[in-house]
Amino acid sequence: MKIAQIDKPKDVDKPPPPPPKLEEIKPYVPPPEFVDIQAPQEQNNAIAVITQQAPVPAAPVPVAAPPAPKAGTNVGQDPRHPLKIGEDYYPDASKRANEEGRCIVSLTVAADGRITNEVIQTSSGFPRLDEACLKGVHGQRMKPATEDGKPIEKTVSIPIVWKLTNK
Q: What is the pLDDT of residues 51-95, one digit of tens each?
């Protein structure tokens, strides 16, 4: 058996070097949103439906004197046949998923007031809401446009806004 002597530890150890200084990282703070306090307040109802006329293409420059403008009215809501749009027609799955949006539906109102050829012109971003827009106008009636006092067929675009009221 061999016995070996171990060196005695030194009485004074050097302290460890200080940790390197790290640059202070400041958290990112986004700039505040611009809030226009002059903006009009939105309606608080569940759905706002606004009828807009499709843009009319510019007429070519006539050589002869232009004909007198024809007196008439635009397509309008028929209070006896309201569209199926509103809180009662909001898709349940869209309510649960907190889906809100605005879609524009292009549709043709026949001379007898029937709505035909409804298509999504601008999507809300949610297929369920877009489908609800089409179901809301399909097979419904509106007041037809008139020209010289006679009802005529006309294509219009209708924006439909889906907004949850009880969040």
A: 444 445 555 656 555 555 566 778 887 778 777 787 778 888 988
Interior angle at CA 45, CA 41 and CA 48, nearest 5: 80
Q: Where are the alpha helices (DSSP H) in the chain?
A: 92-96, 127-137
b/e map 13-40, b = 16+ CB within 10 Å: eeeeeeeeeeeeeeeeeeeeeeeeeeee
Within 10 A of 46 (CB to CB), how many other CB atoms are there? Answer: 17
Over 26-54, what HEC string results?
CCCCCCCCCCCCCCCCCCCCCEEECCEEC
Q: Give me 16's structure tokens.
A: 């460890």
| Strand, helix or coil for residue 145 | strand
Q: Cα(116)–Cα(27) distance, rounded to whole angstroms?
A: 55
